[in-house]
Amino acid sequence: MVRPVISRKVGYKPEVSYFKPRGIPMLDLTEVHLTVDEREAIRLADLQGLSHEEGGELMEVSRATFGRILRNARKVIADAIINGKAINIEGGNYEIVIKPRIFMCNTCNHEWEESPGTGRPEECPSCHDDDITRK
């Protein structure tokens, strides 16, 4: 019996979906494929510094599944960087779900929204303190 494939939740969709090594003509390049959900796992773990558990919660998959997605993504990216290949980002089993990110300053209690994909704010826009919590 085959387990049903569950859509992974992706909270950010950048416009860029292709990378290639500089100075190598497209005709001479080998291409590797990174799925949209693999890119999301890289964004959550490596850019935002989330744990596998936190990343899995946001993508609505288990911690172990998140770890497998991340491992596959890192392998594709390493292959491209080490062997000079282009990266085509497309496909995968995903659903775009963009939720507002709300932060609160623990010093002045100011709340504000940040756009998805912008990373964690360094300080409160009101009092400039760095004691911030995501709600």
Automatic annotation (TrEMBL):
SUPFAM superfamilies: Sigma3 and sigma4 domains of RNA polymerase sigma factors
Pfam families, per the entry: DUF134
InterPro entries for the chain: RNA_pol_sigma_r3/r4-like, UPF0251, WH-like_DNA-bd_sf
Segments for region (Disordered): 113-135
Biased composition (Basic and acidic residues): 120-135
Family in the record: Belongs to the UPF0251 family.
Record protein name field: UPF0251 protein MTBBW1_1740011
Species this chain originates from: Desulfamplus magnetovallimortis
Lineage, broadest ranks: Bacteria, Pseudomonadati, Thermodesulfobacteriota, Desulfobacteria, Desulfobacterales
